[in-house]
Amino acid sequence: MDFNLLIIYVITVLMLIATPGPVVFLVINTTIKSGPSTALRTVLGTNWASLVLIVIAVLIISTSLVISPKLFSLISLLGCLFIGYMAINTIREALSLDKEYVFKQEQLVVKNGGLLNGFLIGLSNPKDIIFFVSFFPQFIKVTDSFNKSIFLLTLLWILLDFLILGFYIVFIRRVSTPKVKNIIVLFSGFILLVIAMIGFLYSFFELISV
């Protein structure tokens, strides 16, 4: 086993996953609004989506499978609409909360987390398949076997994903006051909305140009 290559892979994955994006902001929102147990189910959902994307990427790498770029753009377009819908709900909730009951969990009705939502957010950008196709081959020589390397790289990805998103859950629960929680949810809702709008425009123009 090439441990130097493995260390580089771990550091790279840590940086990639820790960078705030739709998944991170969804986990933060869910932690604040619905508690750590629902946030954990959200993480399970995003990991489930990652496994699906990795399997497709491995099939592409090993069998030269070709998937229509138009299909990628169409699914990405729908995913951006879903992210935008969740972002608008989050912003509306954060703006409508009274000061007397800011983020009392028992009074929150709408929950934007959970296994299914985590899975859908994870699949919202199917172009992650292209990322895995281009990313994994750089580290495929970590062992002397293609299958062993794919298994090891996938396992480490899932474990590191759990570790980093779990850290976000614990950190947000420990440091946030009710007022700060409201600000975080409002901010992350706006960020999700921006991500959805940019992704939608990008996917739309790609779709009509294919």
Number of helices, counting only DSSP H or I runs of 4 residues or more: 8
**Shape by Cα distribution:** globular
Rounded mean pLDDT score: 75
Radius of gyration: 18 Å
Fraction in helix: over 70%
Enumerate the spans where pLDDT stays under 50 for 5 or more consecutive residues. 98-111
Please give the number of β-strands. 0
Q: N-to-C SSE series?
A: HHHHHHHH
What structural class results from the helix and strand content?
mainly alpha
Q: Assess the beta-strand content as a share of residues.
A: under 5%
Report, as a whole number of angstroms, the end-to-end distance.
Answer: 42 Å
Main β sheet profile: none
Counted up, domains total 1
GO molecular function, one term: amino acid transmembrane transporter activity
GO cellular component, one term: plasma membrane
InterPro entries: LeuE-type
Membrane topology: Multi-pass membrane protein
Description:
This protein is mainly α and 210 residues long. It has one domain (3-12, 21-209). The protein contains eight helices and no strands. The protein has helices at 3-18, 22-34, 36-63, 69-96, 115-123, 128-135, 146-175, 178-209. Helix 2 (22-34) crosses helix 7 and helix 3 runs parallel beside helix 5. The longest helix has 32 residues, at 178-209. It is globular and about 55 Å long. Residues 98-111 have low confidence and may be disordered.
Write the layout of secondary structure elements.
Layout: H1 3-18, H2 22-34, H3 36-63, H4 69-96, H5 115-123, H6 128-135, H7 146-175, H8 178-209
Helix pairs in contact: 1-7, 2-3, 2-7, 2-8, 3-5, 3-6, 3-7, 4-8
